[in-house]
Amino acid sequence: SLPNSGNKEITWMMLEAGAETDVVNSVGRTAAQMAAFVGQHDCVTIINNFFPRERLDYYTKPQGLDKEPKLPVKLAGPLHKIITTTNMHPVKIVLLVKENPLLAEVEALQKCYRVLDLICEKCMKQKDMNEVLAMKMHYISCIFQKCITFLKEREDKLDGFIKSLLKGRDKDGFPVYQEKLIRESIRKFPYCEATLLQQLVRSIAPVEI
């Protein structure tokens, strides 16, 4: 079984070495389900956020009739770092984009978000469907698309995006822009039959901003 007595590093190393995450044990449970069952939530997070680098590297080689790869090799490392982050706060993701000059450009972000959309589609269409990973890829893609808008339209560029995300409304400091961005990304998730999407909508819809 993957989660070894709750040790995050060992879990990560086993995944890096190619351990399968969707294999079930004698009672029909995956490693992540077993880890959740015994309360090892850090291990669950690592397993659910794991995305092997070679699955991303696939897009750095021209496929089929393509002359060019969908993802330039130089962007694979920075994009992989964001894909595997476990901190999903939008400001954290924008900061990860901002700290890498290769990524923080309109053309680079356009290529990256298109690849994320392809990965999202693959996660939903493969036989062992991974809704969590699909939703994560879609969410990061939405944030990249907003980064592009700010890079194109605002003088203060990504700093302006971060300011908008952090700005609280006058009466109680609640970050309305951030809330709307997250809700919009959920609303735009293209696979409306996904159980995870329906759960999210059910829990969010009745809550007023």
UniProtKB/TrEMBL annotation:
Coiled coil: none
InterPro entries membership: Ankyrin-MYND_dom_contain_2, Ankyrin_rpt-contain_sf
Gene3D superfamilies documented for this protein: Ankyrin repeat-containing domain
Organism superkingdom: Eukaryota
Name assigned to this protein: ANKY2 protein
Organism: Pterocles burchelli
Lineage: Eukaryota, Metazoa, Chordata, Craniata, Vertebrata
Gene giving rise to this polypeptide: Ankmy2
